[in-house]
Design a protein that fits this description.
2 copies of one chain form a homodimer. Chain A is an alpha+beta fold and about 220 residues long. Chain A has 9 helices and 4 strands. In chain A, strands 2-1-3-4 form a 4-stranded mixed β-sheet. The radius of gyration of chain A is 17 Å and the shape is globular. The N and C termini of chain A lie far apart (about 40 Å). The interface of A and B includes residues 96 and 135 of A. Chain B: This is glutathione transferase.
């Protein structure tokens, strides 16, 4: 188990951002190798490093792991961010999967053609305000504890906080309706490991700007 | 931990079928409550049973679990279909998620408008033949063992076998180039619990016919 994990992706949030956050929250330093051109992706494919020809890919503990959920689960297991037993894991997984569903529409937004953006933004706001955020506010209200499951930080809390920040960028007033989520976000953001990650110079990625979008569309041949 | 798991879904494959397969492979009997109308879905929502207003929902061990992957992981843990340690779990998860990506294409196919079906089927065949099945054939070839991970049945094997059957229904010659996958399918299908599930009268669901598809669309419209 030598060396830091190596993250293979483009220099942007995409599907890798929750992984960066989780490693950071666990206090794990990592390296990044950014794809800049289609040839960079082709090289990873030709070298046989991508089981399904896709990124994210994380080299960790002698494995070349792909599939975001698998990577998050391994990191959570290794660094005790996965609850204390099978039932807590089930809740953590259920919450994580809900967050991931919302993240699907959030992460793709910067890459949509301009004529599709308005409808998508409406959908994101509706789902966040009426389906996902209320569900998690209800969980926190139900037990009054500091974290979603078992009174202990887990991958579900970290991933939820990522989404809270990213949705707020698109819907600035949203957090006003969710006081317990706001408190969770503050609490998690103030953990020493996360605080460091959020400071300038940390590996957190900004919202994808036009330059980044262009590079990504070129790598993946998106229209 | 009393009573059988209860599966809430429509009477069809959809996103519940991998869960039925996994419970069956584990030898676990379960009950099913089928939604037939939009009102049935509304009732589940109004009763507060669906965390994100969606099915599948599985009532198991006092929990009302939603999200297919969370349900699969819990069943796999409980019935020892999740490897022996963290690293085996990582491989099992990686394989399962690849299978799930292919299964998403298979699940959605019956519900597509006719104009979209041809292109979608071509994409599905291409991904199965050129991306997913070669990846798993390679895994089996690399270690020569009977199962994908740790020489022991896991949720990855069960899910893969399910998607192999369902893909073959849409692409009848797809298995021609994958002898090790064929052998895995035979091996898993012959396990007593799976064999029983594959026989008539079991809870395995057939592919959705047109009438069923129209009913299902009405539930979720």
């Amino acid at each position: 188990m030598s060396g830091k994990p190596i993250l293979h992706y483009f220099d942007g949030r995409g599907r890798m951002e929750p992984i960066r956050w989780l490693l950071a929250a666990a206090g794990v330093e990592f390296e990044e190798k950014f794809m800049k051109t289609r040839e960079d992706l082709q090289k990873l494919r030709n070298d046989g490093d991508l089981m399904f020809q896709q990124v994210p890919m994380v080299e960790i503990d002698g494995m070349k792991l792909v599939q975001t959920g698998a990577i998050l689960s391994y990191i959570a297991s290794k660094y005790n961010l996965y609850g204390k037993d099978m039932k807590e894991r089930a809740l953590i997984d259920m919450y994580t999967e809900g967050i991931a569903d919302l993240n699907e529409i959030v992460l793709i937004y910067p890459f949509l053609p301009s004529e599709k953006k308005e409808a998508s933004l409406s959908n994101i706001k509706d789902k966040a305000r009426n389906r996902y955020f209320p569900a998690f506010e209800k969980v926190l209200k139900s037990h009054g504890q500091d974290y979603l499951v078992g009174n202990k930080l887990s991958k579900a809390d970290v991933y939820l906080v990522v989404i809270l920040y990213h949705v707020e960028e698109l819907d600035s007033g949203i957090m006003a309706n969710f006081p317990l989520l706001k408190a969770l976000r503050t609490r998690v953001s103030n953990l020493p490991t996360v605080k460091k990650f959020l400071e300038p110079g940390g590996k957190r990625k900004p919202f994808e700007d036009e330059k980044c979008v262009k590079i990504v569309k070129n790598i993946f041949q998106l229209n």
